[in-house]
Description:
Residues 12-225 form the Glucosamine/galactosamine-6-phosphate isomerase domain. The protein has helices spanning 9-26, 41-52, 80-87, 109-122, 159-165, 185-189, 204-212, and strands at residues 2-6, 31-34, 62-65, 67-69, 99-100, 128-131, 153-156, 179-182, 193-198, 230-235.
Amino acid sequence: MKIIRAKDYKDMSRKAANIISAQVIMKPNCVLGLATGGTPVGAYAQLVEWYNKGDIDFSEVTTVNLDEYRGLPKEHPESYWSFMHKNLFDHVNIRPEAIHLPDGTNPDAADACAKYNEIIHSVGGIDLQLLGLGPNGHIGFNEPGEAFELETHCVDLTTATIEANKRFFDGNEDLVPKQAYTMGIKTIMQARKVLVVANGLAKAKAVKAVVSGPVTPECPGSILQMHPDCILVADEEALSLL
């Protein structure tokens, strides 16, 4: 795993956006695996800024997102579909038909997951997968204890994850979806390149476990030590335990 040190969140976001834009420039019709959450927002903002300057073109890019809440309509302000449109898609020239997320409105979990696996295979797999890191080392919604060989599947969100996400639902955890459809570790590991972003002291333990801990399902991100082309871009606080 290659580690790129950043001074702070802004520097981390810029360095991560650089890696994503290099991928798009080198292969304009690439498939980008994208992530939601607080950490990638700065990188998306940087990509939008470069797009507005004419430095990056998304017209041939295809995207597949890591996950989506089960049971939330797309238009719900806290769906990951809405998050991606608000932070990136609405501001660049990506084709609507080239945007893919798991279908959270499909009540048949097996069908929703099988269809999403089929989409990922049909676009030729993922060239660059962007990942954030949960405080417990989770990637996507793959929580500790998940099997490494899973593709897209339905997960029950842990109490900690529901607690962390309730701030987006007026602080009311009854409104937070209790399940999600997520790409599995197997899907993530099949991406040709993986880019992990992490910032802040709250992520320092997870970064240490992912980079130098034992490879174990108890820390899902630790499997990335086995990936042939994985880059971690993290700020000084997140790297403080290494």
